[in-house]
Each structure stands twice: as C-alpha cells, then as structure tokens.
Design a protein that fits this description.
The structure is a single chain. The chain has 473 residues and is of the alpha+beta class. It has 3 domains: 2-171, 2-Layer Sandwich (Beta-Lactamase); 227-313, Orthogonal Bundle (Helix Hairpins), CATH 1.10.287; 321-466, Heat Shock Protein 90, CATH 3.30.565. The chain is built from 9 helices and 12 strands. The longest helix is centred in the first third of the chain and has 70 residues, at 9-78. The radius of gyration is 52 Å and the shape is rod-shaped. The protein binds adenosine-5'-triphosphate and magnesium ion.
Length: 473
C-alpha cells in the first residue's frame, strides 16, 4: 500500500515540485549571500583605503609624530576593538601603533608585505585574530597593507565581527526559510497535482463500475477542453463503439440462432413424420432427399459464416494470381444463361476487353455469383438483368443491374450486414449472407462493392477492383 503511494503520479509530481522549488530558492539564497558578502567586504576595503589616504596626508603635513598621534586618536574614536593601525618600515619593523590590547597577537603578514613592496600596490587580506582572553575563540579582521610615505607602510585592520554576526543571522534565516519552502512547496505540489489528477480518479472510478452489464455508464466530461477532458471524450467514444459492437454481436447470435432453427425444425419434422407414418419406400426416399437438401443449406450457411469470419480476421489463405477477369465473368454468365431462360429473364452481358486483376479466382467467382444470384432472385419474370465490365485507367468495374423489386433507401447500407434481409425478399430462400461475403472478398482484394437502387424499379451493384500488375499472356 505504502509502496503504491510512492509510485503514484501525485507523489512523484509533488517531489518534483518541491525539489524544483527548493533548489531554485536555494540558488537564490546562495546568490544573495555572495552578493551581500561581496558588498560588505568592498565597503570595508574602501573604508581602509580612506584611512590610508588620511595617514598619507597627515605624514606629509605633520610628519611621523602626527601619524603616531593619529593612529592612537583614530582607534580611540572608532573603538579600539573595531580598528587598529600599525606603522612599519619595509623590513617589517613596527615603529608606531594604536592601542593593541584587543588585537594583541595579530601578525604582520610577511607575504603581503613582500607583495606590496614588489608590486607597489596596496594589498588586502582577511586575517584571523586570536584573543588571549578567549583562546578557543578567534575572530576575523580585514587588513590593508599600504605605503603611506616612501618608506612607511601602514597596516590597518577593521574587525569583521559585525560581518560575522550578519552571516550567522543570515544562515539561521536561510535554514528556517528553506524548511518553510520545502514544506510549503510539498503541500502546494500535493494540492496542485491532486487537483490536476482529480479527472483521472473520476475516470478510474467509472471504469471500475463498468462491467458487462453496466456499459451504459459514461465518464463525466468537464468541457474544459484540456487533456483530461479529451481523454474522457475518447474513453466515452470507445465505450460507444464497444456498446455498438456488443449489440451487433448479440443481434448476430440472435440471427444465427433463428436461421439455424428453421432448417433444423424442418429436418426434425421429416424425421418425426417418417416415424409416425406408414409410408412407401418412395415417400421415405423423398423425406431423405429433403433432409439432405436442408442439411446442405445449413452446411452452406455455416461454411459461408466461417469464410466471412476468417477473411475478416485475415486468417483465410488467398491464392493470389493474375486473372483475366473478363474471361472469368464471361464463363460465369454463360453458365447462368439456361437459368435466365428458365426464369424468363432478359439476361444480357457486355464483356469485351481483356481485364487483368490480381486475385483469388475461386473467391472472386463466389463474390460475382452472389451478385448475379441476387439479381436473378429479386426480379420478376420478363424483368431484365445485365452485366457490364468497365475498364477504366484506374480500376475495373463489374456492374450487375436489374429491373427487379429494388431496395428501400433505408435498407441500402444494411443489406451488406450479415443476416440482413429486406422485408420484400423474405419470400425467397436465403440467409442474408451473400452480400456480406461478396463485400468482404472485394475488400480483401483492395476493392469494394457499392449499390444504387430505386425501390420497385431497379438495382445496380458495382463490383470495383484495382488493375492487376501485369497482363496475362
Ligand atoms: P443469401 O445470399 O445468403 O442466399 P440473401 O440473398 O437474402 O441470402 P444477400 O445476398 O446478402 O442475402 O442480400 C441481402 C438482401 O439484400 C436481400 O435479402 C435483399 O433484400 C437485398 N437484395 C440484394 N440484392 C438485391 C437485388 N438485386 N434487388 C433487390 N434486393 C436485393
Ligand atoms: Mg444473396
């Protein structure tokens, strides 16, 4: 449970938020620290230089005795714990000094002295002062080495106690402020990530509720048009599609059950009759023939369903080859000729060009026969049925038109669904699978089947296929 909490996006966002906030605050504090110390030290240096300037002037005007007096007086005026003065010869020998009780053991820093003599340029240094009274505690002083007369060097220092206490106070404030920043930014981060992710929680709760029986549930769409609103919308669209899919699966299984029921009931009826009636051998034979016919119809239906499902799922193995579509259609039309005469239909076909397609011959024949079969089935005697092959630059179109019963505009797209049959055609034998199979085959060949119709007048199916790669010789 705790481990899960650490893995949540809210927790990780909070850590990021608090981290970034704290690091940036820390950087700002440190920058300010350096800036402040720099300014203070610069101010001290300037003060020391001013004092050195005064010493030069006094030496020029009043000589060494004046400088000696000045050292004592200046130190007394500013406070002997705050400032000291020493006048030295270039060899380091001290010849005048302010009262050094507090500064007792502050050394003359030889390297700084040498640098001053060598470069003729004043030298600043931060030196440590050890106090005899408090051996464990030391303080710091900012010290200047400068020439105040040709052979006279001034060593003057300012106590850095104020500076040190400022730094100590600053560090304390820094610690406190950082603690506050970390806690505040963590709380703020937690609050903000929780608020931002509240939509995700709503979605999760809804998803948990959705089981097979409550597919009606939908995620609340805030309408904010943000990412979560978009996610909720997409999720709802997905649920809509799933619902439609489940509904169509339910309808289909209802249809399958219904369509299987009729032939099985008839087969059972024949069997029952043969048991209860004392019939002749010919009657039994007729019953057996009927049973076979019904069983064939059943098998045919089941096989067609299997083919459609397999092609849809991409499991059906197609045997693609280059086929002369015109020859294939011509052969099929010639086979239908006797049936047309029997039904008193005016059957014509106009197929001239050699039209090459890449496809599975058996499957294309099956799709085409279903279309011609429909045209023959849904027409009345003396109606006409015609087949045309149009060879375009971009595609091949086989048109199967009839002047039959036509299709209601409301049924036009539905007739391609499995088991769908328009009411007018219920009197004819059929399972409602022919067009579904034909379209599935056409689409597996990168083609399609479309329909135009006027109810009671005519129907025209267009079977479109792309050209094959190279002509058959
Ligand atoms: P099956 O083809 O499985 O034996 P079927 O012919 O009823 O049965 P489909 O070929 O899929 O099924 O056709 C679906 C429906 O479309 C038909 O029931 C019919 O209502 C309508 N239909 C198809 N072709 C035509 C046509 N040429 N004229 C009028 N209606 C048609
Ligand atoms: Mg059919």
């Amino acid at each position: 449970m705790i481990l899960r909490f650490f893995k949540t996006i809210a927790f990780r966002l909070t850590v990021w938020y608090a981290g970034v906030f704290s690091v940036s605050s820390c950087v700002v504090f440190i920058l300010f620290y350096f800036l402040a110390t720099q300014v203070i030290v610069n101010q001290m240096d300037q003060e020391l230089l001013d004092k050195s300037g005064i010493f030069s002037t006094i030496i020029q005007r009043k000589g060494m005795a004046g400088a000696n007096n000045l050292a004592v007086l200046e130190a007394q005026a500013a406070g002997e714990k705050k400032v000291f003065f020493r006048l030295l010869y270039p060899n380091g020998e001290v010849f005048a000094t302010s009262h050094m009780g507090y500064w007792g053991n502050i050394q003359v820093h030889q390297p700084s002295l040498e640098a001053l003599i060598r470069l003729k340029e004043h030298v600043f240094l931060t030196q440590t002062v050890k106090h005899d009274a408090r051996p464990l505690k030391s303080s710091k002083a900012r010290v200047l080495y400068d020439f105040v007369a040709p052979d006279v060097i001034l060593q003057t220092g300012l106590s850095m106690d104020t500076y040190e206490s400022f730094l100590a106070a600053y560090k304390r404030i820094f610690g406190l402020a950082m603690g506050f920043v970390v806690v505040f930014s963590a709380l703020l981060g937690w609050f903000m990530s929780k608020k931002a992710l509240s939509g995700v929680d709503t979605i999760t709760t809804t998803v948990k509720k959705i089981t097979g029986s409550t597919l009606d549930e939908r995620v609340f769409e805030t309408g904010n048009q943000d990412e979560l609103d978009y996610l909720a919308k997409t999720f709802n669209q997905m649920l809509d599609r799933i619902q439609i899919l489940i509904k169509s699966i339910q309808e289909m299984s209802d249809n399958i059950a219904h369509d299987l029921k009729s032939p099985i009931t008839r087969i059972r009826g024949f069997a029952e009759l043969s048991l209860v009636q004392q019939d002749t051998l010919d009657d039994y034979r007729a019953m057996a023939a009927n049973t076979i016919e019904e069983s064939d119809r059943l098998l045919d239906m089941i096989n067609t369903m299997l083919v459609i499902s397999k092609v849809d799922a991409g499991q059906e193995e197609f045997n693609f080859e280059l086929i002369d579509l015109s020859a294939m259609i011509l052969d099929a039309c010639e086979l239908y000729q006797p049936l047309a005469e029997e039904r008193q239909l005016d059957f014509t076909f106009d197929i001239q060009d050699q039209a090459i397609v890449s496809g599975d011959r058996r499957m294309l024949q099956r799709a085409f026969s279903n279309l011609v079969d429909n045209a023959f089935k849904y027409t009345r005697p003396n109606d006409s049925v015609s087949v045309r092959l149009l060879n375009d630059v971009s595609k091949l179109t086989v048109e199967i038109s009839d002047t039959g019963i036509g299709i209601d505009p409301l049924d036009l797209e539905k007739i391609f669904q499995r088991f769908y049959r328009a009411d007018e055609s219920r009197t004819k034998q059929g399972a409602g699978l022919g067009l579904s199979l034909a379209r599935t085959i056409a689409r597996a060949h990168s083609g399609d089947i479309t329909v135009t119709s006027q109810k009671g007048e005519n129907t025209c199916f267009s079977f479109v296929l792309p050209h094959g790669n190279s002509p058959v010789i």
